[in-house]
Amino acid sequence: MNNNLYNYILGIADNSLILGQRMGELCGHGPTLETDIACTNISLDLFGQVRSYFQYAAKIAGDGRTEDDIAMLRKEREYKNVLLAEQPNTNFAYTIARQFLFDVYHLAFLSELQNSKDLTLSAIAKKCVKEVSYHERFSSDWVKRLGDGTEESHLKMQEAINDLWTYTDELFHQTESDKVMIKEGVAVDTAKLKENYYKQVSALLEEATLETPESKWFQKGGKKGVHTEHLGYLLADLQYMQRTYPNMEW
Amino acid sequence: MSEDQIKNLRAEESLSLEAQFEARIARDEKIEPKDWMPEKYRQTHIRQMSQHAHSEIVGMLPEGNWITRAPSLRRKVALLAKVQDEAGHGLYLYSATETLGISRDEMYEQLHTGKAKYSSIFNYPTLTWADMGAIGWLVDGAAIINQVPLCNTSYGPYARAMIRVCKEESFHQRQGYEIMIKLANGTPEQKEMAQDALNRWWWPSLMMLGPTDDKSVHTAQSMKWKLKRKTNDELRQQFIDQTVPQADLIGLTIPDPDLKWNEERGSYDFGEIDWDEFWQVVKGHGPMNKARMNARVGAWERGEWVRDAAMAHAKKKNNRKQKQAV
Fold first, then answer.
1. Angle, CA of B177, B183 and B187, to the nearest 5°
2. pTM
3. How many CB atoms are closer than 10 A to CB B217?
4. Quick check: B303 and A245 CB within 8 A?
5. What's the structural domain count of chain A?
């Protein structure tokens, strides 16, 4: 099996898996019915993407593991999502900030992944990019609404951006597998996306009358499986059925 | 003309309008939002349609409870899609109700203060994954039986909304049954989980079709306006006759020792429904009434600053546009 390719796919897919799980938590609890539907829809898109990635990963692994085994039966340290994705839904501003900071990256990433030499990844990216351009529009619009809304919403939005800012740098970190895959023309060279990412994010924050945080203290570790304390609880839910009733079909 | 004469004239006019209105319904014509309608027709429809919308929205909670714990990615995606459909149903039912001159905020207010009801079935807890199957199979199954006749109801916006709702509900029902098939054919633990869910959801599902005909206050009027085409008891019998063979087919047992095929009637006889339990839940004292309302009211209150921000932002944007135009 191509370990590097397998790890590379997991790195991409775990972001969608964990963020999808977070968005799924909100179902039925949104501030309006329309945002409720939108958040559930984003979750649905992300899980759809996860299935495509993990089905491909299962094929590469070729050891009988299924998409569900890969999604739900790994240990906490084996999940490779960025720390940003696992941050909790503290309030709607945090949900939107997390989504926005991820979407801007995700959209740029998928646009590039369409050019991958790996035809399956390229095909998945082509499908996902349409969905994610909608996610990005949704989260950007809400950053503007909340940033340039009321005094209260402005403060809340700024606080959420400030708090989550520390997780943005990790989006551009590269693992050893990433580097090998970049050389082979399979992976996206995320280092090249960084400058534009911060420009785009800052421009939108400005439009939303928000300040771009200046802090250069960044957190990292997710890509190596060193997570925040939040992930364990998220996995407890995600894995509950598979752990309690092993080896069954649903 | 004296005041009395004017009053009489108006009453006559109104009577004739009402007679025309009833004649239109009898001819199976649709009543549209701008048409004249008796106040009672309007109020009855607001009550029933908003109750229906609320049921969709509150109904998201028991199933939403299992989204993060769904046992496979395929099931998780299907469940998300289903709950999202319900939100969509709520949205167009609220919109359809707004055509009768009530705002969505007013309807929420009625829900949150307990003035408006929603389907009592959602006041039961979802304890295991099999409950997702049982809800789809039984609850959506009973809902379809209730709702299919509404595709031909007299109020146009409601009838049109119901056509779409019913299509999706029938998909949900099959999806729920498919979960049950899989469990019933699975390991002993899975089968036990399925049987337990059927045991807990069977009687509340029968109650969903409403009190017996002699206790139902709205039936006669609703029949006339085609808000109802069959009585509660007829609908309940239809549900039982349809569902028992489905349970048999997958080897699950309906939890009713009195259930028996009646050759003469061509229907199943069934045991006594616990109406005390039904009224307890309807009156707000079921296992989850308080939790469901807390979840809805909580989401509404926590979302207030978000809605305020969206309004303020729209206003600012509008002002800027107007300034530019000047």
1. 165
2. 0.94
3. 8
4. no
5. 1
